[in-house]
Amino acid sequence: MNVHKALISGASIAGLSTAFWLSKAGWEVTMIERARAFRDGGQNVDVRGIAREVLQKMGLEDQVRQQTTTEEGTAFVNEKGQVVGAFPVEGSDGMTAELEILRGDLARVVIEALPPHVHIRYGDWIEQVSNHADHVDVQLHSGQTETYDLLIIAEGIRSRTRDQVFGDRVSRNELGLNIAYGTIERETGDDRWWRWYTATGGRQISLRPDNQGTIRAMLAFKDDKHNLASLPHEQALAELKVIFAGAGWQDKRVIEGFATSKDVYFDYLTQIKMSTYSEGSVCVTGDAAWCVTPIGGGGSSLALIGGYVLAAFLSQQDSNESASISNGLDQYEQWMRPMVDKAQSLPPGTPDLFYPQTKVGVGTMQTFIRIASFGPFRKLASRIGHVARTKQELPEIRMAQTATTPQASL
Ligand SMILES: Cc1cc2nc3c(=O)[nH]c(=O)nc-3n(C[C@H](O)[C@H](O)[C@H](O)COP(=O)(O)OP(=O)(O)OC[C@H]3O[C@@H](n4cnc5c(N)ncnc54)[C@H](O)[C@@H]3O)c2cc1C
């Protein structure tokens, strides 16, 4: 029987999930990651819907549960910090999910579970791809040219290799929404709730607890013409300060905290839509293929699921048949696409409705939240967190007989 060889480019959630499962299926897996070392960091992500089943199959649910951010729910507050409506953790997929974890912690849990024969080469990336029906040649920045049966691009939203291979089959849907994330100090008065404040001018401030004794802050604003992520860091910070002046609630605390925070980063929310997830011997997964943005939600869940589904369909093929990989890739796309489409189809008026410009708009939103937080309405409102759910069963994965036990490989 042929042993297939895969190169996975990008070692975050999508790449790591794919490496985990593909190596279990008996593939020889090599990973490259542009960063020089394991990328820790990142704010809150969650594991929702059928991604919990993938995590259980990995045997990692307990480890994730032990490292959750301990958030107890989501509370919308007014300018004085008074709670307008509260949504405690109820069931698995409310506004605060049952499994909320810092991105870096989730990545570490998966990387430590990789079989020892999966190698990650840090500080390297692809310069050129030569894509053929039955193999792919990659020229790496480090100088080598290597040949694989399949190249899996898991490089996140700004993937260069994806753009090189798929060109105009990649489309971008900018949502006109800027978000600045950063870690700030915890203060007396901070509790274990996610506090969310909406100000006039399409501005939002949110503070979330973590399990590291700090607070994860977010400043978001709606403006189609202003893309802070495209500016030099110091300039973006300065503009953010101007935009949030007079926003109210804890605006000064967050702006001052961001001035000294080491991990502030800016995102200009953009959905990635691709007319195909594969061509020849190259495929895409995770944000590189279908970035849903925090507005759609579930990016990490879809990344975990994508890795499993891709490996499962590839494992079901007869490895001696020439069309086996392309059949597996087609099935992977057919399975993933409905779930991705659902996560990307935003309700009418989104995100504008959630970023009101006027006092009247903010008041209307608060009234809506107050009503939505009561009894039966609360369950209905919590459906906003129902992403990565599907009626489809996860495909079965055929594990290789030689799959080895997990071992740390950081
Ligand atoms: C450091 C970091 C912090 C993040 N913080 C948040 C957050 O706070 N909130 C949130 O909702 N989402 C965050 N995300 C995004 C979140 O991880 C993804 O939306 C989701 O988990 C899907 O993951 P992904 O693996 O598809 O993409 P990503 O997590 O974006 O990972 C892509 C990986 O590919 C690597 N890479 C990029 N280009 C190349 C290249 N040319 N060659 C090789 N490797 C390459 C990157 O270094 C990265 O490790 C963060 C991602 C990263 C990398």
From TrEMBL:
<protein>
    <submittedName>
        <fullName>FAD-dependent monooxygenase</fullName>
    </submittedName>
</protein>
<dbReference type="GO" id="GO:0004497">
    <property type="term" value="F:monooxygenase activity"/>
</dbReference>
<dbReference type="InterPro" id="IPR036188">
    <property type="entry name" value="FAD/NAD-bd_sf"/>
</dbReference>
<dbReference type="InterPro" id="IPR051704">
    <property type="entry name" value="FAD_aromatic-hydroxylase"/>
</dbReference>
<feature type="domain" description="FAD-binding">
    <location>
        <begin position="6"/>
        <end position="342"/>
    </location>
</feature>
<dbReference type="InterPro" id="IPR002938">
    <property type="entry name" value="FAD-bd"/>
</dbReference>
<keyword id="KW-0503">Monooxygenase</keyword>
<keyword id="KW-0560">Oxidoreductase</keyword>
<dbReference type="Pfam" id="PF01494">
    <property type="entry name" value="FAD_binding_3"/>
</dbReference>
